[in-house]
């Protein structure tokens, strides 16, 4: 099994899964990792307790992920206690699965090498700036997560070890050619059927519904007949991007702006440096002494790259001779930068330099001198910038005047609109979730339905809906949510009751007809006798869309016929009923090379199925103690 795991963890599927695990780890964040544990665990797995602290961290990470995914709608989602209960339980389930995997990985003796950890750190996007690994960014992030470099490496090693086990399950799974051919043949299998549909519409004539039945249905289902709250809104939409400048920006204006701000068009000097870092978080004196010793070795002629590789605590840059790539001013720790930019020649190295990360020795490996961008290369951008500045200035002037007028004259938007130089716009009477942009934001909705605006009919305050983009709103008309009167929905209820009764009649008729089939009558004779439309599908596929999905699904579950067709009754999703006769089953013939995409789809489906079986097997063989579902960190 260990050999399979080692081989599997090198495959492409395994690498994809490993990358996904590491990326999700980076995106989720692990702040508060060193928090205090609580007495009451959320679960216990083979005697190992999963603490409230672990649960809280994972739960908050999941909330953050969902908030990023759903944006402004996240508040509505969290308002549903049942949904949040499912989220909490899902987090607990994942923590239990992770602990089971960790325990099995330990039992199997799995381990991730230092080189693999270094590579993972280099590839994590949260440690990169401009698509390249940045050492300062790396150190800052892990410090924010309360990690020292050694502790972070071990945490990541544990994560990767667990993912190695997962990738082994997926990466070593495969489907034989015969299994692929069999699966494709099954997917492409066709079936020949005859069927008749007993339509509920054909039975609706003559169905009576009493006024009492309508009233009873209304009383029992009043929540289904709510008229939503509606509102009609007048508003001013002021957007800097839509403003028209009174005067155009001239060529002279652009050139003058360039001359006045020439320093902005200078590409600053860049330096490429390498460093040796000695971490001082545990013993400052020992770290400083080690750095001084390394400096002495360099002064005596030792190779900088070799010392960095063997001695630097920055394990990522160490393996490439301490190289940190190109740096500019204001990218690194101030002390580090001052020392790096004080070096005069390529190959020079600094004395020992202390920063917040420890002690450095810095070597200058290359220099890119300061360069000035020519006017012709930037004048188009400068013109756009000047026009943008003019619009922004005009925007803020109009916004200030518009807000003041709307406050002083709070019973109309006309005066405020005149000051802003825009038109007052008005919506139709719509429900609150159907307001058009830019009114369909949480801030604007909150203002519209606030007491001052909704009940007192006052103008709202200026509401920001984007960069240099604001609105002012007032309610023109408001219709509160209310249950529709019985008279307004009586016909709707009647139609619904007639449909329900007709559906029951259709099912009853189908049952009666099916009894005749069981008594020996053929489906063809039955259709003729009862004036039903006998429909035929000579080669029905699983993906057929011209036949009711319920009939398709049922047809492919029916037993293979032998001498006689297999006949069964089916209830359709729309309330109709059908009788289906399966006559023949034709398996597809798979010839030639199997398409790569089809092969991958079938293999991944098998991988997912086997992984879930693997998880369930771990649970079945474990001692699990799952206390009552927690509500912590909600």
Walk me through the topology:
Blueprint: H1 2-8, H2 12-28, E1 43-45, E2 48-50, H3 52-70, H4 74-78, H5 81-108, H6 114-123, E3 128-129, E4 132-133, H7 135-144, H8 149-171, H9 177-187, E5 190-198, H10 211-220, E6 226-227, E7 230-239, H11 251-260, E8 266-267, E9 270-278, H12 284-299, H13 304-311, H14 315-318, E10 323-327, H15 334-342, E11 353-355, E12 358-368, E13 371-372, H16 375-408, H17 414-420, E14 425-426, E15 430-431, H18 442-448, H19 451-454, E16 463-466, E17 469-479, E18 482-483, H20 486-518, H21 523-529, E19 535-540, H22 549-555, E20 566-571, E21 577-586, H23 596-620, E22 624-625
Antiparallel strand pairs: 1-2, 1-22, 3-4, 5-19, 5-21, 6-18, 7-14, 7-15, 7-17, 8-13, 9-10, 9-12, 11-12, 16-17, 20-21
Helix pairs in contact: 1-8, 2-8, 3-5, 5-8, 8-23, 10-20, 11-16, 16-17
Structure described in brief:
By secondary structure, the chain is α+β, with helices and mostly antiparallel strands. Strands 7, 14, 15, 16 and 17 form a five-stranded antiparallel sheet that branches. A four-stranded antiparallel sheet has the order 19-5-21-20. The protein is built from 23 helices and 22 strands.
